[in-house]
Amino acid sequence: MSHLGDVRARKSRLLGIVLALTATITVVEVVGGILTGSLALLADAAHMLSDNVALSLALAAVWLAGRPSTPERSFGYQRAEILAALANGVVLIALAIWIFVEAFGRFSDPPEVLGGWMLVVASVGLAGNLIAAAVLGRASHSSLNMRAALRHVIADALGSAGVVVAALVVLSTGWRYADPAAGALIAVLVMASSWSVLRESVHILLEGTPRGIDARELAGRLMGVQGVVDVHDLHVWTITSGFPALAAHVLVEPGDDCHARRRELEALLARDYGIEHTTLQVDHARPASGVVSIQRSAT
After folding, report:
1. Strands 228-240 and 294-295
2. Which of 24, 111, 279, 287 could lock 247 by a disulfide, CB 3.0 to 4.6 Å apart?
3. In a 10 Å sphere around its CB, with 0-12 CB exposed, 13-18 middle and 19+ buried, how is residue 44 labelled?
4. Segments in the chain below pLDDT 70
5. Residue 224: phi, psi to the nearest 5?
């Protein structure tokens, strides 16, 4: 638990730095979008504003996840990070729809934009987003919540890059459709970035087997331990990112040492699957149990 506390403190610091960066970029792009008349800049600013909310949610989720457990909440607020990731994905979808509708409306009569200032503002936004992505990238592998925040920032960086390209097109060719086209591209990129976050967060909330673990193969490994004759009521799920859990009923040969066998199984699960939170009920086998289970095959 002390290790989890250190990890959460680091996550909080990184999210705080990124939130400060994205908030600054948002203000710059709002002002720049209004002064230049660029929909692409305003769309990117709206995206950044939603990211400020999403990052604030992620920061709050890290704090909530660190609160101690209680008799009413035996796992504390561990799931807060997953709920925040789900909320982030939903916000991304809604934002993508709004940007796409606005961009589509401008195709009928694209206004004049100040391409030079549009390029300057978009370049500042791109640089800030790349810095934020580098900061988050160091911790995103360990948490779905942090990966969701990183996807927000990457989508921002791609959006800013699209605005830079649009500004260059406007400056070099005078083609006014480049601005709403960049807005539509931002909407597509945002929509794509939200899918994996939504899928994984829903998978965890539905108590799905952790990614990278095959429950049948795991059961077979348990059955392969000397003395184990039956494994049933096997459940493997994820409490929050990096916190898998397992529960199972194990039957061992009559006269076998149940406690020693349980310790052996726990060591196997921790070593080979990274599952340290286990609840194993180990009993001696009885004839004709009538329970549907995974049985040791005859040899």
Report:
1. antiparallel
2. 279
3. buried
4. 1-9, 61, 65-66, 138-145, 287-299
5. -80, -10
